[in-house]
Amino acid sequence: MTNSIKVERARNNFTQADLADKVGVSRQTINSIETGKFIPSTLLSLKIAHVFNEKVDNIFSLEDGDWEV
């Protein structure tokens, strides 16, 4: 899964720590999501999208390999 969190943070002038505070996680969690090391829960994805006033699928996108079982 890919995401545009880093782009959205820049657009909104947020640091990783700012976003982390707004959604109730650590800065390290935001970093791990941005770098693709951690896939957030549905709840966390919704919170992140809400902070940016975007739909979840405007922030997160599936890649071809995500469909393999």
N→C terminal distance: 14 Å
Mean of all residue-level pLDDT scores: 97
Number of helical elements:
5
Report the sheet-strand fraction.
Answer: 5-15%
- Secondary-structure content class: mainly alpha
Strand count, sense and barrel status of the largest sheet are:
2 strands, antiparallel
- Strand order, largest beta sheet: 1-2
Cα-based radius of gyration, to the nearest Å: 12 Å
Indicate the low-confidence ranges by residue numbers.
Answer: none
Order of helices and strands: EHHHHHE
The tally of strands reads 2
Helicity level? 55-70%
Q: What would the principal axes of the Cα set say about the shape? A: globular
How would you describe the overall organization of this protein?
This protein is mainly alpha-helical and 69 residues long. The protein has 5 helices and 2 strands. It has helices at residues 5-12, 16-23, 27-34, 42-51, 56-59; strands spanning 2-3, 60-61. Helix 2 (16-23) crosses helix 3. The two termini are 14 Å apart.
Key features of this structure:
69 residues; two-stranded antiparallel ribbon; 2 strands
Strands, helices and their partners?
Layout: E1 2-3, H1 5-12, H2 16-23, H3 27-34, H4 42-51, H5 56-59, E2 60-61
Antiparallel strand pairs: 1-2
Helix pairs in contact: 2-3
What is the gist of this entry?
The protein contains 5 helices and 2 strands; from the N terminus they run E-H-H-H-H-H-E. The chain has 69 residues and is mainly alpha-helical. It has a two-stranded antiparallel ribbon.
